[in-house]
């Protein structure tokens, strides 16, 4: 592995060329030259130099994060022969969008109970960011809507579940006493969506309800606990999966709206086609399929996703 990567990561960690040099056991001038060589090669500065030290540039921060992951992978790969546990090391998981993180709750609990030597690195983000991270090897496995990975032969996909979403409102919501004939009758009430809606047919469905010209018909909220808080305190409409809607926690506070249906959403785990998943990634995928693939997504969250409870 290129020693310049290790030296640049050390500079980013310590915020100082001299401290980085001490940490990696070379001279300060050697570290300065290594970073300068990398910056010429990359075509952009990795660090801002100041009188009080150095801080990464925006591009430099992305570079250093990837460099650290490469160094970690190399250390794990070269140390595999000495490891009694093939699952040991960092498992990098991407969840795109973050609103489906709950799918990981029970599988991760079981995974860590079986393989306590696994160290997790979980990240979330928008679809395009997730696809780039998987393609570049920045995550070992990506969990997301199946449609996001469709038509991309560089990825191998395992369907783990199909989410059946429903719309829901607080108890006492005005819509519950209405004679709703069509979804458009709910147009006076804003809906809560994640920052990114991947399924275009769903967007067309919303446009039919709220009208293509309106710009005030939705809230953007990624966190489901916060979605519940907004629904509970306003007349907004939220989106929930059928599994969670069946929990006692949900039924005490909310009601689903049968007149506002949404299409089923297949969820998959994606890995890079050309790489064999590491044992920890394969174990996680197997648990996800086991937990969610039979009777539908398992929402073991009755007492766990209560962040907004009074």
Automatic annotation (TrEMBL):
<dbReference type="Pfam" id="PF00126">
    <property type="entry name" value="HTH_1"/>
</dbReference>
<comment type="similarity">
    <text>Belongs to the LysR transcriptional regulatory family.</text>
</comment>
<dbReference type="InterPro" id="IPR005119">
    <property type="entry name" value="LysR_subst-bd"/>
</dbReference>
<keyword id="KW-0238">DNA-binding</keyword>
<dbReference type="GO" id="GO:0003677">
    <property type="term" value="F:DNA binding"/>
</dbReference>
<dbReference type="InterPro" id="IPR036388">
    <property type="entry name" value="WH-like_DNA-bd_sf"/>
</dbReference>
<feature type="domain" description="HTH lysR-type">
    <location>
        <begin position="1"/>
        <end position="57"/>
    </location>
</feature>
<dbReference type="InterPro" id="IPR000847">
    <property type="entry name" value="LysR_HTH_N"/>
</dbReference>
<keyword id="KW-0805">Transcription regulation</keyword>
<dbReference type="GO" id="GO:0003700">
    <property type="term" value="F:DNA-binding transcription factor activity"/>
</dbReference>
<keyword id="KW-0804">Transcription</keyword>
<dbReference type="InterPro" id="IPR036390">
    <property type="entry name" value="WH_DNA-bd_sf"/>
</dbReference>
<dbReference type="GO" id="GO:0032993">
    <property type="term" value="C:protein-DNA complex"/>
</dbReference>
<dbReference type="Pfam" id="PF03466">
    <property type="entry name" value="LysR_substrate"/>
</dbReference>
<protein>
    <submittedName>
        <fullName>LysR family transcriptional regulator</fullName>
    </submittedName>
</protein>
């Amino acid at each position: 592995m290129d020693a310049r990567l290790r030296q640049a990561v050390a500079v980013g960690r310590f915020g100082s060329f001299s401290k980085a040099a001490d940490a990696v056991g070379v001279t300060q001038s050697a570290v300065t030259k290594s970073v300068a060589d990398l910056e010429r090669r990359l075509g952009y500065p990795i660090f801002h130099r100041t009188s009080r030290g150095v801080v990464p540039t925006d591009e430099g921060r992305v570079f250093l994060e990837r460099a650290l992951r490469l160094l970690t992978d190399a250390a794990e790969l070269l140390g595999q022969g000495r490891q009694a546990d093939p699952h040991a090391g960092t498992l990098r998981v991407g969840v795109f969008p973050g609103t489906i993180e709950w799918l990981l709750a029970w599988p991760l609990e079981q995974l860590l109970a079986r393989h306590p030597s696994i160290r997790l690195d979980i990240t979330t983000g928008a679809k395009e960011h997730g696809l780039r991270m998987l393609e570049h090897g920045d995550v070992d496995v990506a969990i997301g809507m199946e449609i996001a990975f469709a038509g991309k032969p560089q990825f191998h996909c395992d369907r783990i579940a199909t989410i059946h979403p429903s719309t829901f409102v607080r108890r006492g919501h005005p819509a519950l006493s209405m004679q709703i004939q069509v979804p458009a009758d709910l147009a006076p009430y804003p809906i809560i969506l994640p920052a990114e809606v991947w399924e275009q047919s769903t967007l067309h469905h919303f446009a039919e309800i709220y009208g293509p010209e309106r710009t005030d018909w939705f809230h953007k909220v990624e966190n489901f606990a916060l979605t519940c808080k907004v629904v509970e305190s306003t007349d907004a409409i939220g989106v929930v999966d059928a599994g969670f809607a069946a929990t006692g926690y949900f039924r005490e506070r909310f009601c689903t709206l049968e007149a506002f249906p949404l299409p089923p959403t297949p969820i998959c785990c994606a890995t890079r086609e050309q790489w064999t998943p590491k044992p920890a990634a394969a174990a996680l995928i197997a648990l996800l399929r086991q937990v969610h693939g039979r009777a539908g997504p398992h929402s073991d969250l009755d007492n766990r996703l209560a962040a907004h409870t009074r």
